[in-house]
Amino acid sequence: MKRLSALVTLLILVLAGGAWAAMEIPDGVKELFQKRCTGCHYGNHPPKGLNLEPAKVAAILDAPSKEVPSLKIIDTKSPEASYLLKKVRRGKDIAGSGMPPRKALAAAELQIIEAWLAGVK
Question: Is residue 12 assigned to a domain?
Fold first, then answer.
């Protein structure tokens, strides 16, 4: 019985560790969000409920977009389909306007988000 209990505990720790690793945000992404996104997307009542503060990003993994509920904000199974990526790329298949609103992300900034989302799987 002790062996089974230890095995279950180990399994829970491994699974929790894997989930935690998927939620870690690279420093470059944190800096980009801080610089270009959290001026609006922070606090208790951010636009569309999307808080991009580093401590809150885990909550948007596989969460439906409020603008297009059929799409996930960050789709961990299909990162290219992530609504966040569509918004910052200013795609035609988004609701509302691209993000950030006034000045589009530079190519290097887009690459930071794309590389991060590719590793979220």
Answer: no
